[in-house]
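Subject: design request, 458 residues
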């Protein structure tokens, strides 16, 4: 596949890195010669210094025979125009634009980015996607990651195995026997820096991060089975009143009115704007690194500190300082992958990587076959994939025990009609089933083949 990426920042770099690893023909455009030099020196991509929305630059980058353009510059208007130009002049089939300004995304303007009005196939709002992820973490304390699939009927939950985890040293197949009515399957294990696909004979160890696919209604029970009985936070402080912080606060006000919420915002004008828009949230002007401000916010009585500023350093240090002053737990937004390996040692309970969220949304549209949703874990070492089985799929109609699934794939759940099915040896996949599975990076191409649309389908 030939892909043009407009924007060589953190998100553009991450997308280019992933797509180039999969042998796609990737070209990157950015106005910064420094960023283009960095990306071409480290990745197998072509780099062009220029404006991503200008026709001559798109032509130079190969737009005439491109399959996809992904516009993820810092400017929404550049992203929009780049997609429009790619469509009008070069007939690029798939156009994806990152849209950050929430004014474009208000419900009353829902038709703005429909295909009949603009030539954009997919819009991605990192702020809203990250905000939703923050809200899921708040709803399910104890989980280090929660992602929903199959119209919110199935979830992937990442759970850390602590010292008191009851399921440690138990073969996974025994868990199915002990809890036959629990719709949950361990599909992946992250141990000692290595991510592996779980097998039925495997046993979890203390310190493992288990990836579990389960029915949405069984998330809390699954967390309890792993020894996580944490109570949902009722006193929350958010550091950062930008788009993400405001979205999270507004949603909590609407759906969890009993939660006591405070925001710390360093920009005075932004603090005033947010305080006027929110009804029940206390907004403090100051720094999340100011101990006096944290004390004024009653940090010692706070259940959860969420740091959502634009600075990784402030987010990390603010969360660490909050815990040292008595806050029970923290959740940190971290853009740079450089910090991910040290956060646990610093006392960070959970983190969110907005780049990973955006990349996952893009991968959903890069994948071949009937792929409905994708979520990359551990910097792309594996993917949770939701795919629709067609009549021509080699998976349809045969019991699981007779399927010769490629290495690196484990099916976690099947969504059929309104029912969630935990697969066993007798389970048969039917046409139109939506299958949620765990696939190691090297096995993703096999997943695409298993769910491909063949000529017989038509």
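Subject: RE: design request

Done. Sequence follows.
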């Amino acid at each position: 596949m030939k892909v043009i990426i407009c924007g060589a920042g953190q998100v553009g770099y991450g997308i280019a890195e992933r797509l180039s690893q999969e042998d796609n023909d990737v070209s990157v455009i950015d106005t910064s010669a420094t960023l283009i030099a960095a990306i071409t020196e480290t990745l197998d991509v072509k780099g062009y210094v220029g404006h991503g929305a200008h026709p001559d630059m798109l032509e130079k980058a190969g737009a005439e025979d491109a399959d996809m353009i992904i516009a993820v510059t810092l400017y929404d208007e550049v992203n929009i125009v780049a997609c429009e130009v790619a469509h009008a002049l070069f007939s690029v089939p798939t156009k994806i634009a990152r849209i950050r300004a929430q004014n474009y995304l208000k419900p009353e303007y829902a038709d703005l980015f429909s295909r009949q009005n603009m030539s954009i196939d997919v819009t991605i709002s990192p702020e809203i996607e990250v905000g939703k992820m923050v809200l899921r973490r708040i709803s399910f304390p104890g989980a280090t990651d929660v992602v929903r699939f199959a119209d919110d009927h199935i979830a992937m939950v990442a759970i850390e195995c602590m010292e008191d985890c009851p399921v440690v040293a138990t073969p996974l197949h025994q868990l199915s026997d002990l809890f036959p009515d629990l719709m949950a399957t361990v599909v992946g294990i992250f141990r000692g820096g290595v991510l592996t696909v779980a097998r039925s004979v495997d046993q979890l160890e203390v310190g493992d991060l288990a990836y579990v696919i389960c029915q949405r209604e069984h998330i809390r029970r699954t967390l309890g089975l792993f020894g996580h009985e944490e109570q949902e936070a009722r006193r929350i402080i958010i550091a950062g009143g930008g788009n993400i912080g405001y979205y999270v606060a507004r949603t909590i006000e609407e759906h969890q009115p009993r939660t006591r919420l405070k925001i710390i915002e360093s920009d005075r004008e932004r603090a005033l704007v947010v305080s006027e828009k929110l009804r029940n949230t206390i907004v403090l002007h100051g720094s999340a690194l100011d101990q006096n401000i944290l004390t004024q916010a009653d940090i010692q009585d706070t259940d959860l500190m969420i740091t959502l500023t634009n600075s990784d350093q402030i987010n990390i240090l603010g969360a660490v300082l909050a815990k040292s002053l008595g806050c029970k737990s923290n959740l940190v937004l971290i853009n740079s992958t450089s910090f991910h390996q040290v956060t646990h040692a610093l006392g960070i309970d959970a983190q969110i990587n907005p780049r990973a969220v955006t990349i996952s949304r893009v991968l959903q549209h890069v994948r071949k076959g009937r792929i409905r949703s994708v979520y990359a874990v551990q910097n792309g070492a594996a993917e949770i994939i939701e795919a629709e089985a067609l009549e021509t799929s080699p998976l349809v109609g045969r019991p699981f025990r007779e399927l010769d699934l490629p290495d690196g794939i484990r099916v976690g759940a099947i969504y059929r009609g309104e029912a969630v099915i935990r697969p066993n040896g007798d389970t048969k996949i039917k046409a139109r089933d939506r299958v949620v599975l765990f696939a190691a990076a090297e096995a993703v191409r096999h997943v695409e083949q298993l769910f491909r649309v063949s000529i017989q389908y038509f």
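The longest strand covers residues 184-191.
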